[in-house]
Structure formats: C-alpha cells, structure tokens
Amino acid sequence: MGAPLIGARIPRKEDYRFLTGAGQYTDDVTLPRQTYAAFVRSPHAHAKIKSVNTAKAKGAPGVLGVYTGEEIAAAKLGGLPCGWLITDVNGQPMKEPPYPVIAQGKVRHVGERVAVVVAETQEQARDAAELVQVDYEVLQAVADGRLARAKGAPQLHDIAPDNTCYVWALGDKAAVDAAFAKAAHVTKLDFVNNRLIPNAIEPRAANGSYSRADDSYTLYVSSQNPHVERLLMTAFVMGLPEHKVRVVAPDVGGGFGSKIYLYGEDVVVTWASKQLGRPVKWTADRSESYVSDAHGRDHHTIAELAMDKDGKFLAMRVKTTANVGAYLSTFASCIPTILYATLLAGQYTTPVIHAEVTAVFTNTAPVDAYRGAGRPEATYVVERLVETAAREMKMDPAEIRRKNFIRSFPYQTPVALLYDTGNYDATMDAAQKLADVAGYAARKKASEAKGKLRGLGYAAYIEACGIAPSAVAGSLGARAGLYEAGEVRVHPTGTVTVFTGSHSHGQGHETTFAQVVADRLGLPVENVDIVHGDTSKILFGMGTYGSRSIAVGGTAIVKALDKIIAKGKKIAAHLLEASESDIEYANGEFKVAGTDKKKMFGEVAFAAYVPHNYPHDKLEPGLNENAFYDPSNFTFPAGTYVCEVEVDPETGVVKIERWSAVDDFGKIINPMIVEGQVHGGLAQGIGQAMTEGAKYDSHGQLVTGSFMDYCIPRADDLPSFQVDTRETPCTHNPLGVKGCGEAGAIGAPAALINAITDALGVKDIPMPATPQTVWRALQQKKAA
Amino acid sequence: MHAFNYHRPSNVNDAAALAAKSADSKLLAGGQSLVQAMKLRLAAPTDIVDLGMVKDLAGIKSDGKTVTIGAMTRHAEVTGSAEVKKAIPALAVLAGMIGDRQVRNMGTLGGSLANSDPAADYPAAVLGLGATITTTKGTHAADKFFKGLYETALRPGEIITSVSFPIPKRAGYMKFKNQASRFAIVGVFVADMGNGVRVAVTGAGPCVLRLAEMEKALGAKFAPESVAGLKVKSDGLNSDLHASAEYRAHLITVMAKRAVEAAMK
User: Fold this and answer.
1) Which CATH architecture group holds A299-468+633-783?
2) Which chain A positions have a beta carbon within 8 Å of B32's beta carbon?
3) ipTM of predicted assembly, 2 dp
C-alpha cells in the first residue's frame, strides 16, 4: 500500500462529472409524458384572498390542471410541519400556526403560493399562471421583527397573539443579575444580525410522478435530506404509507440549509402527479428563489458582558428577537434557541449566562437554518462583545481572550453544552503568527501615509457540530432522531459500494468518504464508490446540515466497516485454518499473526459470495453490513480568524488586505476539501458582513429581490485567504473528526466587523458594512 | 418569456421597415437589458428586430480628429480597439468597465444609448466628449440627446447608426460601482477638449448630466485640486438602497477628482 489516505489531498472524484456538464440535477430529470408546473405567488405581503378565478387559465393552451388552496383543502393535504417543539418560559408549547402548502384564505408574505398551473410545457404553464385572477383585500403588513409585537401591529395568525411564537430562555437569570451588580465594567451592544438569502447556485426543483401500476410515487427533489423529506411529506402532510414513496435527491447544486426543509412545492407536484396521471416538474427561477426559499439569520440583539477590573468575564446577558417569517419552516424554531443560546459561552469561562429569545412572526419569507444556523449569530454576539470589551478596557483583544480561555476539558458551560476537548491557545497563537500581527503597526502606518485607515479584528469562534445526540435533541424538543445510517456492500471481486444517509451537495463526500473506507480497508480509493440521495437505495438517513456528515455519517460507515472486517476475519480464519483471534487485518490483507499465511481482501470477499469452502454452520454468505450511529455528544470545532482591512475614507470602500484563519476541525481526512469548505464559508461570512442583506420595505415588499440589489460577494471582493489548521481530535468518535462546513460563515462576520470598527474608531457598524454605511459612520464620527 | 416574432434583417432600411410594421416591436441591439426584461416578463414585444446581422452598423474608424464607432459595435471591441486606445484611452477604459465579460461581448454602444439607463457608462463618454449621434433620420448633438429617465431624443422608428467622438487632449473616467449590479452609482467622465473642459456624470441623476461649475474650474486649471473642494448639491439626485442622494453628491466630487488624476496620467 502507498501513503495513508487519511490526510491525503485527493482530487475530488465528483469533479469530472461536474466540470464536464455530466451532473444530473433534478431539472435534468425529464420523465416520459413530463408536464410542468408554474406557481401563482402573492404580490402582497399580507392580504385576504377574496376569490381566485382560474377559468381563463384552465382554458389556456396546453393547460392540464389548475389548483388552488381550495382543492388542496378538499384533498385533505395537511400543512407543513415544524420538526422542533420549543417550550416557552411559562412551560407552554410554542405557537404553531397552520402552514398550508397552498395559501388558504390569506397570504402572509410576498411569494407565498396561491395557485399552481400544470401544462404541457413550462412556458405554457407560466403563460397560464398569468391568467389566474386573484382578488385580494390588502392588509397592513409588518416585516421588521422589532415591530412585530408593537401595539397595533398587524396580526398574522389568530393562534399567535402579538405575533409571538414563543419567549424562551436559557441560563440562571438571578445569578447573572447578581454578577452584573458587582461588575467593574459592563460592555453593551445593540445590533441586528442581518437577514440573508441563501442563493444556492441550483435553484430548488421538484419532479413528482405517480405510478398507477403499484400505487407508488417518486419525487426527484433538490434536497439535502431525502429521507427526512419523505418522512415529513408522507406521515405529516399527505398521509401516505412511507414505502409507497421514493424520494431521490440527485446531484444537488448547493443548499446552505435552504434545502433541508419540506416545501409546499414538493408536496404539490407529488400530489398533482396522481391527479393528472403524469409526472409534474417545477424548477424555481431565481426571482422565485429570492421570495420563497427559507432565509437565514434576522436577529435583533441586545447583549451585555460583565467583567471584573482585570477583564475577567463574570457574566453575559443576551436578549434577542428572532424574526421567523410568516410561518414556521421545518427547523425554524430550534435555530434561534437550541443552536444559538447554547453557544454563547464561546471559548470562554464566563461562569453565568442568561439568554432570552423571542421568536416573532412577520410578513416575510420563513427564516430557518442557513450555513451556521444560530452559531454565526451566537459567535457574532460573543466576539463583538469581547472585542468591544477589550477596547473599552484598553486591553489587547488577543490578551483579553487568552485571559478567559477555557483550558480544562471536558468543560461544562453554563448554557447546557459539554465541550469534550479543545485547544484555543493553539489556534490563537497560530493565527497571530499567520496574520503577522507583529508587523501590523508598520502596515497601519503605511496606510495612514496614503490617507487610508487600517484596522485589525479577531474572532475566536466555537461551534457545536456533529448534530446530534438524539436523546439530548429529543429532550430539547426535537421531533426526529439525529443519528445517521451507513451500509458497506462488498462485491464478490472486492470492490466496495458504500451507501450513506448523508447527502453531498457540494461537500465532496464521494471523495472524503471513499478515503475513509479505502484507508480502513487498505484498498485503492478508486475501488470505493459512495452512493447517497435515494431512499430506495439507502437504509435511512437524516441528511447533511450542521457540519454533521463526517462526524455522524462517516462514523456510521466506520461502524459498518468494523463489522465487515470482523466478518472477514471469520471467513479468513476458516480459509487459513486458523483461530479467528489470531487473524489480523491490515493493508488489505487478513494475516495469521506472526506467520506469512494470508488472504487478500478480494479473496475473502470472493469466498463470501462463492462459498464453496465456507463456515456455513457459523456464518451467512455475503459481505454486506450496515450500521446506525447516534453520537454521544456534539463535536466542537473552534478556531481563530484574524482580519485586516484598509478603508478608503473618501468613499467608504473597505478592502480586506489579509485574512488568516486557523481552524481546529480535529482529524482531517482531505485537507484540500477542508480548505475549500473554509474558503466558501469565509466568503459567505464576508458576504454577510460586507455585501449581503435582505431588505423588506414597510409594506413587506422584498427590495433586494435579485442579484441587481442583493450582493453575493465575487472573487474580486475577497482576499487570498491564508488558512491553516490545528488538530485536537474529537474524543468520542473513532475518526476524531469534528466537521468543517460552517466554520467560515460562523467566524467571519465578527472578525470583519471588528476590523472595520477598529479602522474607523467607532463602537459599532451595522451589517452589511457597505461603502455607504462605512462612509456614513465616518461622517457621523466627524460630526460628533 | 412570452412568444414573439423574430426578424433578422441584413440592412438598416429593412430593419426600420420591419420595426415599423408592428406597433409593439423592439429593436434588439445586443439585448443585455431587453432580453433580461423579457425573461422577467416585464417586457413582451410582439416582434423583435435583431440588428446583429446589419454589417455596416459595426466598426471603428478614426481620422485623427474624431473616432466614429458603429452603433452595433460590441463593448469588448471598443475596449480592445487599438485605435480607440490610442485616440481616446478613457473611452476604451470605460467600455471595459461595463458589466462583465459576457455583457461586453454582446452589448453594443447604440443599444446602451437608445436605452439610456440612468446608470449606464456610455452616456458619460458621449456627453463628456460632446459626441454626435448619427441616426437613420439625421444627427443629434450629445447635449440634446439625453432627455430623462430611459428617455432620449430618438423619435419612433429612428435607429442609431453610429457615434462620432471628438478626440480630446486628455480625458479620464472614474466609476463608483454598485457592488451588487456593478452599474455606476456615480461615474464621472472628464475631458479636456483643448478649447474647454467637459464633465459628465452618470448614475447620479435621472440621466447623464453635466457639471458647469466643475467644467469652469477645470477650464481655469486642469488639476485634481480644482474640483476637490467643490461640493455638489444633492437636490434631484438619485437615492436608493445603495446610495443616498447625499452620498452620491459626495462621490461625484471624489470621482471627478480621480477622473482628472486619471486624465493627467
């Protein structure tokens, strides 16, 4: 065997098909007798539907069916469920208003589905959709979460007075208040964590088909978790037996969270395919994506940090209003609570923390998990507070962090999590070196000589990944388990197909997972293929989000591999006429310990499938094993980012001069893929901090409804990233892995805003810090 | 997009005749705005008359005094043209800042001027250099061509055939981009014509406009400091999510100063 495969920069197996246009996305799937759906969407943020007249549309060329909320109600299709129950401060369950797949009687956000037209061609469906006449009675709207509970605010749902979904809290309030009372200094910030629009490169798409032959359905859908999609759709919405529905998520062009959820369109095309006896396909255009994909973030937070005179953290107090949009999307309720407040300890020993979160409904698109999901919001709170505290205490921002780092593990935080391991000094030290912090003063001087402002900012983030121990999640309100399944099928000739419940939509699982398998079995990596994304092929799966794939999905595969090796040892012992306990497996060979007697992996596989000489009395033929893995804890990736910016005070343009990122992801399987994930995450985090921000006007119209106004960062907005890693292996999974997909998006915004506020010499600046925002901040400072 | 009839004439007279046949026809001159509007179903012309095959509408000529560019010349050709680079380098620079590579390979000078998007780049050069716009029905001086938001002096059925740019002594263009769309929030074209200075601003108002005070100051002394202290009034300037009128007014001064610096290089 050659060099070890764990830690090898193996080029991605999937790139050949992606780069040569051979990928098969949902929209590429065109079935015999295919039809096409177009949705009529609400132009109003809040309105009563007085009538929907479909007569003209029904008579348009090529039209096969037009369905409104009325038909959906008559068909007894349920509403979209929420997968996490939050219990409020009074012990009451959160308010869960009905979320119909097509609006019933009222629309609550621009872009909400009002009707669907199915036709022979996509153009015919769209043409006819324009002929559906909807008579609306327009109502006052509320889009800003801060105004949702104001007196006289328009009310969205009868069952949710004051537009309140829940008021939830975590931590010891009395202890926090007591600590604040004796603090030498309190740092306070009041800010908005801006709403983001995911913009996966492949828009959402769904193609449902019904087979009369066996009364079954197949749904092709651009999804991050086909089994969850199937479970929610069959059990909670359509009332179908699960075994009659196959969900396939083929190649998926990005998700960032937005494709975790069950959407109304998926249900409608599946249902309509039976009504029409023909497959029904819908592919969002970009304009639809903007108004109908679940958005991310949108918090308003008041945060305070109490310190003693030496800058030792005593307590933290956080009050957040989370705008969840018009309806509860699949995991909307747990993002601003379970995945947010539990991370407020950060990397620090802050002994007591109290967080109160109020989730409100507004006339905007639903908000749910988006790359990082709660943890970027938490990191922004902690790291903006810490940096601001350092400035106010006239301390070095790295020193105040070091003064408060957790150094003893396992560490129980005051906000429920138990960190198994970490080494925050290691990533801080390495990041400071990489960033050449020592040379910063000279660079600042050089900038000043050119009339420019220079600033430096840190973010030392932590995240909880490897989601999640099912029992813990369940006790916190999860309505699903969060384990993962894997199956290893060894073929008679010794090649291997692995089936995983994780889903790859850009992460590179086909390569990373193959490396794990090939390394463990001692096989060439090309002998291993990874299959994912099809409920008819894969046992079960909870899918990919929360940086969980390698830590949970990868471990499930490892467990199955261990079973393969154990069975292989039994077969080899028989073939080699040795005791099973004497068989050792390494480098693709089953060996009798201390001898040169051996059988190759392929020989053992062959014996399993051609069992002429085989221990039939003790063993079944075949070599195929599966495993489920439910983690015992979260994993805790952490790291330090250092950002250095130069600001042009004449225009407000910020240029990122240096970006140094040192992450601790535990053991790394493929450093090249990890670097790619970090780069992508950083780009998204920088986007949030500098360019991206969804804006609704006071009427609930989305002002940033296209790339003309919503700015995804381009390559020339970004610096050349310097990235490095430190490895503190996770203690509770066999690979020692933690996950890396979200880190960049979690840590980047705070580092960048810390750098910009340092350059400008201001306490705070809102995100996105666009040139105009930066220029205004400088004008205000001048005027003050 | 909605269905439409597609026509591809080979000469400008046929194009005019075809366009005149339908009340709801549109000329396609690169299609970098029109096609987008059609795809969004915001525009639904019954007939599209594509000028792409009209050969005598494309090309670049220079006689030492003026550079004449055919209306269907693509932005990429202008930015890459040795003649333009030699005679009016600022014009080549400007064309290279329009949109992205794909837009520059399709979009045309005539299409941009006829559309008169308030944030388009070309109008700044046309007005800044005092160009002459030649059409199937005569000529227009730049100063009288741009009338307002998406509004020009073109009459119905009139097709731009070419634009003649007087060669300046020196000129510069500075563009402050909308970070999302990369259109101009403010673009300032400054030209020292030898017998006077012209300053044209795009992106800031309903259509491209001139700044007399800056022209006078630069006429007296063509140097960045001549305009650096000149404050522009924000009255009537555009205001949107990306830039308030005040910010735009401020940026006009900054971009004008930098355009002069570029012209002097």
Assistant:
1) 2-Layer Sandwich (3.30)
2) none
3) 0.96
